[in-house]
Write a structure and sequence with these properties.
single chain; 156 residues; mainly alpha; 8 helices; binds heme C; Haem-binding domain-containing protein; transmembrane helix
Length: 156
């Protein structure tokens, strides 16, 4: 029985080694653009810090990669989250969004955080500073409301 277990573990280990060489996802690292949300809206340091700590790893062109992001199959899952996250909302391209889209995304930011979908729970488990406190949520909400008011005024 123990022999079989050892054999299975060995096979798993060999499998893990092999997958390190296939399908290595490319790392995303682009310079901060003027279209970036924090840049273009001159977001205050507190909110900017929150967004960078809790959202920018999946919703920008400057994700920070932890050491385990190099190891398959974790690397595949992280790459998938970044690709999917950026396709829905990329803060690095904020200024290119229409007023309507910006307003909608701001609204969704609060909703997604409020119900606990964002930041993704698995991410929060590994990133303590992404675990937003009630105060941080209120700060984000107040800031979002302020930005949405500006958008409403601009489009009048
Ligand atoms: C670990 C990666 C990750 C982190 C961190 C993360 N997101 Fe996401 N986010 C995603 C993925 C993947 C999607 C698309 C799938 C989905 O909607 O669940 C998404 C979708 C969204 C959407 C929905 C967009 C739409 O129009 O439907 C919003 C809004 C959002 N995220 C906001 C945030 C905010 C705000 C934060 C930080 C407080 C954050 N996310 C942190 C990965 C992430």
């Amino acid at each position: 029985m123990i022999k079989v277990l050892k054999y299975i573990l060995l096979l798993l280990f060999i499998g893990l080694v092999i997958i390190q060489f296939i399908n290595k996802p490319e790392r995303i690292s682009e310079p901060v653009s003027e279209n970036d949300m924090i840049e273009s809206l001159q977001v205050n340091a507190d909110v900017a810090g929150l967004l960078k700590a809790a959202c920018y790893d999946c919703h920008s062109n400057q994700p920070r990669y932890p050491w385990y992001a190099s190891i398959a199959p974790v690397s595949w899952s992280i790459a998938e989250h970044i690709e999917h996250g950026r396709s829905e909302l990329n803060f690095s391209e904020w200024a290119t969004y229409s007023a309507r889209k910006r307003d909608h995304k701001l609204e969704e930011m609060v909703e997604e955080v409020e119900v606990g979908n964002m930041p993704m729970p698995g991410y929060v488990a590994l990133h303590k500073d992404a675990n937003l406190s009630a105060d941080q949520f209120e700060m984000l909400k107040a800031w979002v409301e302020q930005e949405r008011t500006k958008i409403a005024q601009e489009s009048n």
